[in-house]
Design goal:
Layout: H1 11-31, H2 37-44, H3 48-76, H4 78-95, H5 102-131, H6 136-165, H7 167-186, H8 220-223, H9 227-256, H10 261-289, H11 291-309, H12 315-344, H13 349-378, H14 382-400
Helix pairs in contact: 1-5, 1-6, 1-7, 3-4, 3-5, 3-13, 4-5, 4-7, 5-6, 5-13, 6-7, 6-10, 6-12, 9-10, 9-12, 9-13, 9-14, 10-11, 10-12, 11-12, 11-14, 12-13
């Protein structure tokens, strides 16, 4: 049998670049929705609660449909799922240019765009997990840097388009470009080296590593009966609940304590920028010390940050919080996929990650709304900060209890 010809560019690099781009585009335009708040309020007179509610619905729908996308991805590969959801994503964003009532806001953005988002994390992270085992943590961290890049760039792009062409045209432009790019990227995706018809190790094994052997993976139905899966689900719900509160409410909190608007916005940008460093650091740490120890360190950093924000009443103190929290934020969202692979293997990784992500989206949908309700009742974010600090400590305890599954392998 002839030896396969070596490729000039190992396909693992193409997979990594594709998954990076999926994260940057999808999460970037989700975050950019905040730039449209003022135009929508000015045009229709809707409250912040009504507009942010559509974002919460999209976040929830993303998690719900992510379970289906993950299951299909395990069976058929990512190309078809990514293509279909890219159409929903672009269509939902583009149709926002036509809205005249609240029900359209929730249909086009909450439902259509939410379905489009459902593949962004599940497909990108599961694909990178299947392609890389030797340096899975590092490669997951690099791909998740795409999230931070999108969070930094897309709001700037949206703001520029709104100022030049108006918010309706901006929706069409962003939605159309995102849909085309994601469809093209989808054609590059392969579930794993075997589906691509290549040997398990190509000309550069450090870039295209062998997926876990089937014997080391736990079947989907068996995984559903393990306590580890449900501990991980509750852990993700708890921590995403806390983290989305910070992301949504940090700017209003900064304004409440007298920080000027440009500095308050810069605090949020700092979180996004530092989170990219956190994603790389956690990725390298996972490969060296394992998922559990790396995640425990991440949670300790998060708790320190949440304690500090309760003392922060000056700009420098809030920027220090942004640095501490940004590290933990980027690290935790990067660690979830490798933890699932470490516990259960890769055979059902898409479906299991979809379930874990869904629990996170439930927490992320409820958290900001509850924080707003508490503020309306008390006039302060301090009760909320104490609540999320306690919940983060609970999350630390859950991570301590997350032991390997003894029967695996």
């Amino acid at each position: 049998m002839s030896k396969p010809r070596a490729e000039k560019i190992p396909y693992g690099r193409i997979i990594a670049a594709a998954c990076f781009s999926i994260q940057a585009i999808g999460i970037g335009i989700y975050v950019a929705f905040g730039v449209f708040f003022n135009p929508l309020m000015s045009e229709f007179g809707w409250s912040r609660a009504v507009i942010s509610g559509a974002s919460s619905v999209a976040f929830f729908v993303m998690g719900l449909f992510g379970i289906v996308v993950g299951r299909f991805n395990d069976r058929f590969g990512p190309r078809i799922q990514m293509t279909v959801t890219a159409i929903f994503l672009g269509l939902g964003y583009g149709l926002m240019s036509r809205i005249t009532s609240v029900w359209q806001l929730y249909l086009f953005y909450g439902l259509f765009f939410g379905i489009g988002l459902s593949s962004i994390d599940v497909i990108a992270l599961t694909t990178i997990t299947r392609w890389f085992s030797r340096n899975r943590g590092m490669m997951t961290g690099i791909v998740k840097v795409g999230t931070g890049a999108g969070q930094f760039l897309m709001p700037l792009v949206a703001g520029t388009l709104i100022s030049r062409f108006g918010w309706r045209n901006a929706y069409v432009i962003i939605g159309s470009i995102a849909m085309v790019l994601l469809i093209l990227i989808a054609q590059l995706l392969k579930r794993d080296p075997i589906q691509r018809g290549r040997p398990m190790a190509e000309n550069n094994p450090s870039l295209v590593a062998t997926p876990d052997l089937e014997g080391k993976s736990i079947p989907f139905k068996t995984a559903l009966r393990t306590r580890q899966l449900w501990i991980l689900c509750i852990l993700n719900l708890t921590l995403v609940f806390c983290m989305m509160i910070i992301i949504v409410h940090i700017v209003p909190h900064a304004r409440d304590i007298g920080i000027p608007a440009p500095l308050a916005t810069a605090v949020l940008s700092t979180i996004g920028g530092i989170s990219m460093l956190g994603r790389v650091v956690i990725g390298l740490s996972i490969d060296r010390i394992g998922c559990r120890k790396a995640a425990l360190g991440c949670l300790l950093v998060l708790i320190v940050g949440l304690l500090w924000i309760q003392l922060a009443d000056e700009p420098w103190m809030l920027f220090l919080f942004a640095g501490i929290y940004g590290l933990a934020h980027g690290a935790f969202f990067t660690a979830i996929s490798p933890i699932v692979a470490e516990l259960f293997g890769v055979d059902s990784h898409g479906a299991l990650l979809g379930i874990v992500v869904f629990f996170g989206t439930v927490g992320g949908s409820c958290g900001p709304t509850l924080a707003g309700y508490i503020f309306d009742r008390t006039g302060s974010y301090m009760p909320t900060f104490w609540i999320i600090t306690v919940m983060s400590v609970i999350g630390l305890g859950l991570m301590f209890s997350l032991k390997p599954i003894q029967s695996r392998g």
